[in-house]
Amino acid sequence: MSAPFDEALAHSALSLLKKVDNRHLQAVARQEMKKDFPAIAEELIDEHLDFAARLLERACYYAEKVRDQKFPEDKALARLKEEFPGAVAGDYLTAMSHGYFVTR
Questions:
Q1: What is the pLDDT, as a whole number, of residue 4?
Q2: To the nearest 10°, the Cα dihedral for 80, 85, 90, 95?
Q3: pLDDT tens-digit series, residues 41-87
Q4: What is the pLDDT of residues 6-31, one digit of tens each?
Q5: What secondary structure letter does DSSP report for 24?
Q6: What angle do CA 77, 48, 104 make, to 5 degrees?
Q7: Cα–Cα distances in Å, from 71 out to 76, 78, 90, 99?
Q8: Quick count: other Cβ atoms within 10 Å of Cβ 90?
Q9: Measured between alpha carbons, how far is 37 from 61 in angstroms, rounded to an integer?
């Protein structure tokens, strides 16, 4: 990311994106974030939305591996934390839960 990472923005982006199932609806999430964080540059909002989208996508991958018993959940969470540093601690669990739901 070119701008400083912000935990609150990342958390908001994740919370909004887990509610939508496709990239088209990210515009709605972007509008919500602009409303919640009016002083934040649009570029920074887009970067955090992208971060959250990649985190959710990767969590789906790991959730599928855990479900197929090819990967332990604690290792999957550790990998998410390594691959996506800086998110709110609970967001990794939220992403995994979303991944379980989406991949079932």
A1: 60
A2: -40
A3: 888 888 888 888 888 889 989 999 999 998 899 999 999 999 999 88
A4: 777 887 777 777 665 565 667 788 88
A5: G
A6: 45
A7: 7, 11, 20, 14
A8: 10
A9: 30
93: which 2 tokens?
Answer: 């669990």
Q: Which pTM value belongs to this model?
A: 0.75
Helix 26-36 to helix 42-67 angle (10° resolution) is 130
Q: In whole angstroms, give the CA distance from residue 87 to residue 91.
A: 7
CA 103/CA 63 separation, integer angstroms = 7
Residue type for position 36:
D
Using the structure block, give the residue that is written with the tokens 């379980």: 100
